[in-house]
Amino acid sequence: MSMDRIEQWATTLRAEWPFRLRLRAWPVAISLLFLLCMASGLGVVVTTHMTRVQFAQLQQLEQEENQLQTEWGQLLLEEGAWSTPARIEQIATERLGMRIPDVHDVEVIRP
């Protein structure tokens, strides 16, 4: 009985429709729409995955940057400590045996 109704519907549709309706095109169109929906869904999944991978890489690079910034700050502090006058005087005294001359050791030379 349902086949009769479908055939009746198709004949009335052909009679009332201003254009000739090709029933063979509908399965192709529906299949095409289904494939487009599947491709769109796959695109969303791939885009989401790539976004997560790139976000993980960004977090790793930011962590490395923070470590390098910390190390750079420590190096700047060490550089400042190495170039202080007190440090230079200490090294001159210990390694080179240098000292500030006593008043009696100073000799003034006039031109």
UniProtKB/TrEMBL annotation:
UniProt keyword list: Cell cycle, Cell division, Cell inner membrane, Cell membrane, Membrane, Transmembrane, Transmembrane helix
Primary residence: membrane
A GO biological process this protein is involved in? Answer: FtsZ-dependent cytokinesis
- Membrane topology designation: Single-pass type II membrane protein
Q: Does the keyword Transmembrane helix apply?
A: yes
**What InterPro entries is this protein classified in?**
Cell_div_FtsL (IPR011922)
- Ranges annotated as spanning the membrane: 25-46
Superkingdom, natural source = Bacteria
User: Can you supply one Gene Ontology CC term for this chain's record?
Assistant: cell division site
Record Pfam families: FtsL
Per UniProt, subcellular location reads as: Cell inner membrane; Cell membrane
**Signal peptide (from-to):** none
> What's this protein's function?
Essential cell division protein. May link together the upstream cell division proteins, which are predominantly cytoplasmic, with the downstream cell division proteins, which are predominantly periplasmic.
What is its quaternary makeup? Part of a complex composed of FtsB, FtsL and FtsQ.
Q: Which family does the record assign?
A: Belongs to the FtsL family.
The identity of this protein, by name, is: Cell division protein FtsL
Q: What is the species listed in this Swiss-Prot or TrEMBL entry?
A: Halomonas campaniensis
